[in-house]
Write a structure and sequence with these properties.
The protein is mainly alpha-helical and 288 residues long. Helix content is 78%, strand content 0%.
């Protein structure tokens, strides 16, 4: 049985709530104008989803060729086939042409499932090849280099071509670095958490995130990374340091009722613990 990381479930739930909020604001209320808070929230949800996907995609074992093929087929059946069938049937009913689903740049709002599928395929093949190397840090350097190449391709005009549009390669190349950072954070999780526990590192990440999101003048990729990492360490610290074990056990299964679980985590006296955590952290830093 896989160990459940509650803070990852909560981060996923927060991203879902922000998606709902953002879509209600844009499509239901019709409020096209934005604000500093909305911009900050929107910087998290897609970047957060791809970070979490990469984080959960990493596996410690070395897959065989057969296992790699099985894993790719699993991604096809889970991500690609349902997206193509659902989108194709919708477009056949509405537009009379199922192929119009692929021609739509946004894929009816589901471009990210195709982008995620391509990311998973790239990483699965990449992981199979680099696991032949013994040095874990060399493996990570290669993964990061590939992510840099893919992201640099996003800066070219090729992302606006018809075939790139059909495959959602624009979104894939733009968000692949965030997926890769999730992989690397999980791969080196002990080192990752060690540095995140340093107050100066936390403060720097948070200030860069706030400055970049609310004021600007910081590259969007750097801002997005720091926003996701800020959410990561805030949620992780709250759950690890300010919730008791029996409160963990009373949480309903997130797989079936994730929204209720998120509401529970941030409600009642747990919210008071969060407020006290902020006050205590401020006073502690102020005395240092």
């Amino acid at each position: 049985m896989k160990q459940r990381l509650l803070y990852i479930d909560v981060l996923r739930g927060i991203a879902i709530l922000i998606v709902i909020y953002s879509h209600i604001l844009l499509f239901c209320v019709g409020y096209s104008e934005t604000s500093a808070l909305t911009n900050l929230l929107r910087l998290y949800f897609l970047n957060g989803f791809f970070f979490i996907s990469g984080f959960m995609a990493y596996k410690t074992f070395t897959p065989s060729l057969l296992e790699m093929i099985k894993n790719i087929w699993k991604k096809i059946t889970i991500l690609l086939i349902p997206t193509l069938i659902t989108g194709g049937l919708y477009c056949a009913y509405v537009h009379g042409n199922p192929c119009s689903f692929l021609a739509d740049p946004a894929k009816g709002g589901y471009w990210f499932t195709i982008a995620l599928f391509i990311m998973m395929i790239i990483y699965t093949i990449e992981d199979f090849l680099i696991k032949k190397l013994k040095n874990r840090y060399l493996q990570s350097a290669i993964i990061l280099f590939v992510a840099g190449l893919i992201y640099s391709w996003h800066k070219t005009d090729m992302t606006s071509t018809a075939w790139a549009n059909y495959l959602s390669l624009g979104g894939t190349s733009y968000y692949f670095p965030m997926f890769t950072i999730g992989v690397l954070c999980k791969k080196h999780i002990e080192l990752f958490h060690k540095y995140l526990d340093i107050p100066l590192v936390k403060t720097s990440i948070f200030l860069i995130a706030m400055f970049g999101a609310l004021i600007g003048y910081i590259p969007l990729l750097i801002t997005s990374i720091t926003v996701v990492l800020s959410a990561y360490f805030i949620v992780k610290d709250i759950l690890n340091n300010h919730l008791e074990i029996n409160e963990f056990q009373r949480l309903p299964p997130l797989k079936s009722n994730i929204l209720f679980s998120i509401i529970y985590v941030f409600s009642d006296r747990i919210l008071l613990k969060y407020i006290s955590y902020i006050i205590f952290s401020y006073l502690k830093c102020h005395r240092m």
